TrEMBL record:
Annotated keywords: Membrane, Transmembrane, Transmembrane helix
Protein name (record): YjbE family integral membrane protein
Intracellular or extracellular location(s): Membrane
Ranges annotated as spanning the membrane: 12-34, 46-66, 72-90, 102-122, 134-153, 198-218
Family: Belongs to the TerC family.
UniProt organism field: Hydrogenophaga intermedia
Length: 225
């Protein structure tokens, strides 16, 4: 009760919730892309369990975020992994027989959600960790509140993608953009390509173009087969 009566607790909780609202957009897109090929019941299961497990992983990741961010080549590998995930998600978009992550079953969708969220959260969790200021109960409560936010956003994105198929391509491009940003944010590359420089945004744009080009190529090849 003493914790709940502290103004600092509520201020920190508000900051964590706000940070998660801001940062949940790209995560909702990944979840929607991974789950859109499933049946309605499995979609709900993939969204719920994928989001819950991703938030749990984010709690663990936030605790060790500072040390992780200091590891060389970690974000480089993460960026390449995100590019691959973006291509696979787009490749699984229009062809039910393509076997992409979206159509690989419930466990495959959850696995894709977990891996993508883990990589995309590497730089985001720093802000959450700073807001929590070492208060683990505050961190857990704040991230738990983020679960319904991401679930609502993911469900809405699936409906939008069903009505406007072009959104799938834009979603994959967003993953490629984040992948390009993550790649050049690695501590071994950042000195040559500083954040918010022309090279930084060029790498992000190149990541988006690469994902869309490769995804569309694989789609055409699968249809031809």
């Amino acid at each position: 009760m003493e914790l709940l009566s502290s103004p600092q607790f509520w201020l920190g909780l508000g900051q964590i919730i706000w940070i998660n609202i801001i940062l949940s957009g790209d995560n909702a897109v990944v979840i929607a892309l991974a789950a859109r090929g499933l049946g309605p019941r499995q979609q709900k299961q993939a969204i719920f369990w994928g989001t819950a497990a991703a938030v749990l992983l984010r709690v663990v990741l936030t605790v060790v975020a500072v040390k992780l961010m200091q590891m060389p080549w970690l974000q480089l590998v993460g960026g390449l992994l995100l590019l691959w995930i973006g291509v696979q998600l787009l490749n699984g978009g229009d062809d039910e027989a393509s076997g992409g992550p979206a159509n690989g079953g419930l466990l495959a969708a959850i696995r894709t959600i977990l891996v993508a969220d883990l990589v995309m959260s590497l730089d985001n969790v720093i802000g959450v960790a700073a807001a929590a200021n070492g208060n683990i109960p505050l961190l857990v409560i704040g991230l738990a509140i983020a679960i319904p936010i991401v679930i609502f956003g993911s469900t809405l994105m699936i409906r939008i993608m069903g009505r406007f198929p072009a959104i799938v391509t834009l979603g994959a491009a967003l993953i490629g953009w984040v992948g390009g940003e993550t790649l050049v944010s690695d501590k071994m590359i950042e000195p040559w390509i500083p954040h918010h420089s022309v090279g930084f945004y060029a790498a992000a744009a190149l990541g988006a173009l690469l994902v869309v080009a490769m995804g569309k190529y694989l789609q055409r090849r699968n249809k031809a087969d």
